[in-house]
Design brief:
Elements lengths: L4 H5 L5 H16 L13 H16 L10 H13 L21 E3 L6 E3 L14 H16 L3 H13 L10 H21 L5 E8 L2 E9 L19 E7 L24 E7 L2 E7 L25 H10 L1
Antiparallel strand pairs: 1-2, 3-4, 3-5, 6-7
Helix pairs in contact: 2-3, 2-4, 3-4, 4-5, 5-6, 5-7, 6-7
Amino acid sequence: MSGWAPYQYTYHKNKQLYWQAYFLISVLESEGLNKLGPSLSDSSWSWDRVERVCNKTFEMLPTSDDCCFHHMVAYSMELCKEHGFLQHITSWKNTILRSDSKCIGSSQRGDFKFATCEENLEFSTVKGSSKSIEATSYAALYFIRKGSLEDSLPLIMWLNSQRNDNGGFRSSQDTVIGLQALAKFAEESNAEMPSRTDLTIAIGKSSSYFEKVRISNDDKLVTKEVILSPETGRYNIKSRGTGVAFVQMISKYHVTSMDYEPIFNLNAKAAMIESTPTLKVTFILPTESSATMFLVEIAAPTGLTFTKEHYRRTHAVN
């Protein structure tokens, strides 16, 4: 487990409750992952103490009054229930978890939902804070764990809208828990939906739909792009068929139609040299320029990761 939580707990008035919830999540999520050694459940002594922490955390639920941590506590309780603890609790009606709408805000149209946490109490900005992203991720995991997949969907949609160009979020901490929530939703939604994808996305204005995107099982992981006419207005998007798709609209402004001649004469070619994928980049620096430094940045395509071994092999080839 990683996140901003431990540092925050140090100075929180209810730090004991939040530390315990954080401990339970880290322990119960990792249970059974160690395939080479004994697990926590193999020791009755250790397992009994985890059960005590679950019971103690449940007793402290009424003191949870911070929306930044509310769903983390709720998620820890779901994990306790999932691992066979808290079976003596016959009714959850009198707990703070009785209301699923607690600490949940929504956009004006209600299509996005998020955990209300300090800087993001209202949907007044496009970007949520790092705390809001992590709190919303715990809220989504809470709903997914309790089997309310539909309730988690607006939270997942909001999380998707907060991702940056590299697929992460604001920081490495909120990215870890954010991607965990997205992956868990993908796992559970695929389990409940038909195995084949056959989906059509239609884009238009008013009652007229002039662009259609077909997504089949063979190309469901391929990004598809549609360039719309440069006109302002309200666009409508509807879908037909079975499957899951994420639609994102990007608006560009102050874009000039003037064409510019490339000043670097940049050229890139891919080749295989000694069974090593090699990228050869050539460029020519401009002879007439007031600049004192030129920066050429080379980024890896999605799905490709540079490693030290790749670098050594490529360096040796050069």
